[in-house]
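2024-03-11 09:14:02 DEBUG pipeline.ingest accepted 1 chain
2024-03-11 09:14:02 DEBUG pipeline.ingest length=307
2024-03-11 09:14:03 DEBUG pipeline.predict start
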Amino acid sequence: MLKFIGKRVAIGILTLLVLSTVVFVLMKTLPGGPFDSDRVRDPRVIEIMERAYNLDKPMHTQYLLYLKDLLHGNMGESFKKSGITVNDMIVRLTPTTMKLGAVALVLSVTLGITLGIISALTKKQWLRSAIVVFATTGVSVPGFLLALLMIYLFTVNLHLLPTMGLTSWKHYIMPALALSFSPVAYMTRMTRSSLSEVLRQDYITMARATGLSKISVMLRHALKNAMLPIVTYMGPLIANLLTGSFVVETMFAIPGIGREFVTAITGRDYPVIMGLTVFIGAFIIVMNLLSDIAAAVVDPRIRLTSK
């Protein structure tokens, strides 16, 4: 097990290094600079600012200096917000994003698994077909489009729900639904497919033949084995929901990581872009690692096949 975990950790570190390198190179090769949109027009002032942030040095030197600071836990200071460090931004913005992500995660897991179980067990063709249609639609329709439709219906026409910030429980409804719509559909399809396959296995027939009740067979045998794909999917799902959605947070004016990321990209705020990229990338890698470990615990064959 330790060898399995060590291999996953090494792959995660390498992935994070490649991710940060690619993002850094892309930022530096794109035309324009972080101070082009500012009101400063004096070339001498711009030169002084670039020297202060080491932007006058070669690209590889800038990258090595950034990695050195990163190893010491310093992600730099924002170009656009004087005196505010990226570390402070992450500490301030993460709770808001994670609260919204937690609500969306609960909706995704609860509704997705419930609808998947109902679809796999129901004898009513119309109900099964309705769930399949919903799952197909959810996978096909992007969350931001659902957000636009909800804003038009519940805010513009009905005046029922607010659209800016997260100051009350009503503010969570539309952004949480927009974030969870696709995961609910995907998890419904996954649960339905996995559970249907498990119910056709011989050991399920044997369990039923021994006289166990339907509930006992479902809980002790079917669901336990059908949850492996769900466990594998949970890692990326948790990471994606808890690190926020760029578009959804921007549309609903939510002061979270996603909205700040979009603002930083628009303003070419290099330290913020790099810092949030590393933070989100590290979080996703950790969640994937925990997901792999959980899957290996549930099914030890995964550890054998990964050697």
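2024-03-11 09:14:41 DEBUG pipeline.report Residues 112 and 187 are 5 Å apart (CA to CA).
2024-03-11 09:14:41 DEBUG pipeline.predict end
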